[in-house]
Specification:
DUF3489, single chain, about 40% helix, 5 helices, alpha+beta, 2 domains
């Protein structure tokens, strides 16, 4: 296919002819079947995080950080990315420690879990 583009003799043709030749060549190719989703490999961090999220009490970002070695920002980003895989994460409980100036203290945390199918 690239030979047709690079061929000196074919340079006299305009772009429309070249695009038509390309479309004709590609029309004969079989279309790929969409791949069915593969199950995750055993022992991956994805399985570790999902197992933590499926616990009855849920999990915190700190617990996921400890289990995976990730930073807090990476864990939160991973939670957002799970939505693309069809796994929705929800905040079950937010525990806030109030500091001296009424701001969040160091003991604040949020408990997350996998949302049930019926939850919106």
């Amino acid at each position: 296919m690239l030979d047709a583009w690079d061929d000196e003799a074919n340079q006299r043709y305009d772009l429309t002819d070249a695009m038509d030749a390309l479309r004709t060549a590609l029309a004969g190719k079989p279309t790929r079947r969409p791949a069915r989703p593969r199950p995750p490999r055993q022992g991956t961090k994805l399985l570790t995080v999902v197992a933590l999220l499926k616990q009855p009490g849920g999990t915190t970002v700190a617990q996921v950080c400890e289990a995976t070695g990730w930073t807090k920002d990476t864990v939160r980003g991973f939670f957002v990315g799970l939505k693309k895989k069809g796994i929705r994460v929800e905040a079950v409980e937010k525990v806030r420690s109030v500091g001296p100036n009424r701001a969040g203290g160091r003991g604040s945390y949020t408990i997350y879990r996998v949302a049930e199918a019926g939850d919106a």
